[in-house]
Amino acid sequence: MKAHDGMYIDGEWRPATGPDVIEVVNPADEQVIGRVPAGTAEDVDLAVRAARAALPAWAATAPAERAARLAALRDVLAAREDEIAETVTAELGSPLKFSQNVHAAVPVAVAGSYAELAATHPFEEKVGNSTVHLEPVGVVAAITPWNYPLHQIVAKVAPALAAGCTVVLKPAEDTPLVAQLFAEAVHEAGVPAGVFNLVTGLGPVAGQALAEHPGVDLVSFTGSTAVGRRIGATAGAALKKVALELGGKSANVILPSADLAKAVNVGVANVMSNSGQTCSAWTRMLVHRDQYEEAVELAAAAAAKYGERIGPVVNAKQQARVRGYIEKGVAEGARLVAGSPESPREQGYFVAPTVFADVTSEMTIAQEEIFGPVLSILRYEDEEDALRIANGTVYGLAGAVWAGEEAEAVAFARRMDTGQVDINGGRFNPLAPFGGYKQSGVGRELGSHGLTEYLQTKSLQF
Q1: In the chain, is it the N or the C terminus that has fewer CB atoms within a 10 Å radius of its CB?
Q2: Structural contact between residues 287 and 256, judged by C-beta atoms closer than 8 angstroms
């Protein structure tokens, strides 16, 4: 794979200030496929200074021109979809078809949505005798994860640019190659120098330096709740704005009137997608006691079909983490009906598609985010019991409800403490706000709500 040996700062690729590198490993075969520089605090400082210098001109750029640059970025990404898919498959291990349909295609749609919003969003309104202006927050630190590497980059960078902010991106160290490809696309799209900057590096070094930098006005982070707490505390000490999209333990509630087979099959597919490395995955399936054993049989059969269809998890550490949770599930008394703690292959960081039955809310696998292809099936007595179980974690990112009538599902969904709920298998909407309640985060991404995160409000009275 092609890899730059420098940082993209102020419109050009510059040599890193330090000698250290990060090896990029293909998790399917454990082979090194590239090396990128491990950025230092000095690299971060150079990038933030470039972003601050570019901020006044970009903030003053007409929204129509910002929209034109985002439309050009969308077109460049669309033209390079095959290269994007191949890159993500190599560094994340995602099957190529999934990389094409999701990892490459969804960011194009999101970039396009912000090109339209930049041109149409009301950045000014009259309120009585006041004029209210929406202005860019300033310099944005975007710290992104490895599980949807390009989507998470675009979901932060596109709205920031649409708002008139400038950006320093620190991508996950496991998947930096697609971030470099994105920097090339930004350059090709004609985004002015300094408006977007890329620093590759480790979280405790480059990420921490970026979150702490006094020249940063907003920190947008996606990742674990534990790291999110630390970033929130760091940013809070300087009263910086934060946007945090964190962990999840989403409930898939199947009401008795639902099409059970469809709900179970779609639910299993949701958990196995991206090898279970999705923060919004429906990892807890809730089934009425009268339908429970049938649902367990259906889920075990569905999971068995994914044995050769899902890719590995991202690295050896993640593989050990997921296998550890499977072992803990068995130790705490859950019934393993599909999968195994053992790796299904001799090479690569693979985890067998796993389904647990007889899971109770008190078990670790029902409370903690596993981030692997592991489904827990829980039994409920009635709707109030289902609601108690669904809301019974510290998370509130996503979820699903299935019922024979849409109105019945909607009535239940409105009582769930979570930021997004799919009704009877509702499709992904790149314009709908995405974000969580409770410890799943602060703020929203995507659509106009995502744009608002990068704006601040000024009122002029007449």
Answers
A1: C
A2: no
Cα 444–Cα 445–Cα 447 angle in degrees, nearest 5: 110
String of DSSP letters for 367-395: HS---SSEEEEEEESSHHHHHHHHT-SS-
Q: Which two tokens stand for residue 29?
A: 């075969």
Residue 241, both tokens: 């704005």
What are the tens digits of pLDDT across the range 190-215? 999 999 999 999 999 999 999 999 99
Helices 105-120, 81-92: inter-axial angle, 10-degree rounding: 120
Q: What is the pLDDT of residue 307?
A: 85
Q: Select from 388, 179, 419 the least CA-distant residue to 279.
A: 419
Residue 77: both structure tokens together: 């990404």
Token digits of residue 308: 């050769």
129 burial class (0-12, 13-18, 19+ CB within 10 angstroms)? exposed
Residues 42-81: b if buried by 16+ CB within 10 A, e if exposed: ebbbbbbbbbbebbeebbebebeebbbbbbbbbbbbbebb
**What pLDDT, on the 0 to 100 scale, is given for residue 429?**
96
pLDDT of residue 269: 98
| Cα distances (angstroms) measured from residue 178 to each of 63, 219, 291, 422 | 27, 21, 44, 29
Is residue 436 classed as helix, strand or coil in its secondary structure? coil
Tokens of 211: 């979150």
Query: Which residue among the candidates 91, 165, 212, 279 is catalytic per the annotation?
Result: 279
Q: Judge contact between 279 and 147, C-beta under 8 A.
A: yes
pLDDT at 149: 98
Please answer whether residues 39 and 6 qualify as being in contact, where contact means their C-beta atoms are separated by less than 8 angstroms: no
The predicted-structure confidence for 126-153, as pLDDT tens digits, reads as follows 999 999 999 999 999 999 999 999 999 9
Q: What secondary structure does DSSP assign to 241-293, as a single string?
A: EEEEE-----EEEE-TTS-HHHHHHHHHHHHHGGGG--TT---EEEEEGGGHH
**Residue 343 pLDDT:** 87
Does the annotation mark 279 as catalytic? yes
Residues of the chain with pLDDT under 70: none
CB 303 within 8 A of CB 355: yes
Q: To which H or E segment does residue 319 belong?
A: helix 316-331
Catalytic residue among 91, 173, 212, 245: 245
User: Catalytic site residue 245?
Assistant: yes
